[in-house]
Amino acid sequence: MAHFTQNIILFDLDGTLTDSAEGIIRSAQYMQEKMDIPIWQSEDLRFMVGPPLRESFHNAFGMNETQIEQGIFYFRERYFAVGLFENAVYDGIKQTLKTLRAMGKRLAVATSKHQSTALRILEHFGLTEYFEIIGGDDTTSARNTKAKVIAYVMQEMQADTKDIIMVGDRKYDIEGAHALGISAIGVLYGYGSTEEFHACGADAIVKTPQDIVTLFQ
């Protein structure tokens, strides 16, 4: 197994810290209903977990810019009210975060989710205490790609690329980190796959939250 020495570890949220599929899928179905789009089955909407909404709405539903804005409005109408808490922390995550902190690691969150929503979710599940920075998209900064979010968190933490590493469950996490010259770990307990991680060049692939700790021991 690979070994890493970076002191700063960034975590994705959906599919990495929490299993958030239910709330995201139900909110996507709500959006489809409001926009008079045929409602897809839950399994067919699992791709929604991870990528930025704009990308998913454009690629999957063929929406133009005006439709994307309307779709995001309807999605968030439900998600901000109830969807964000249709969610659960993965088994082993809290202990993993505790152990990494005890090892002297500095931890942060870098998510494509709206930053205020990410904060609400992490507060709800008692995870904020483990992270120095919680970074995400917002309405004023146009941090609308994973690379832009990671760059923002790096700047806030005054981090050097050689001393920071990304942990995530989809290719967007790996590619976003690599675009900035940062190593990245793919986790298989989320929504990605071994094939996806090999294709995007993940620097390591782990099966469980506990395996993340092993990479730094």
Description:
- The chain has 217 residues and is of the alpha/beta class.
- It has helices at residues 21-34, 53-61, 65-79, 93-102, 115-124, 146-157, 171-178, 194-200, 209-214; strands at 8-11, 18-19, 88-89, 106-114, 133-137, 164-168, 183-187, 204-206.
* Strand residues, percent: 15-25%
Specify the structural class. Answer: alpha/beta
Order of helices and strands: EEHHHEHEHEHEHEHEH
Task: Pick out the low-confidence regions.
Answer: none
Care to give the gist of this entry?
The chain has 217 residues and is of the alpha/beta class. It has helices spanning 21-34, 53-61, 65-79, 93-102, 115-124, 146-157, 171-178, 194-200, 209-214, and strands spanning 8-11, 18-19, 88-89, 106-114, 133-137, 164-168, 183-187, 204-206.
Give structural attributes.
217 residues, alpha/beta, six-stranded parallel β-sheet, two-stranded antiparallel sheet, 9 helices, globular
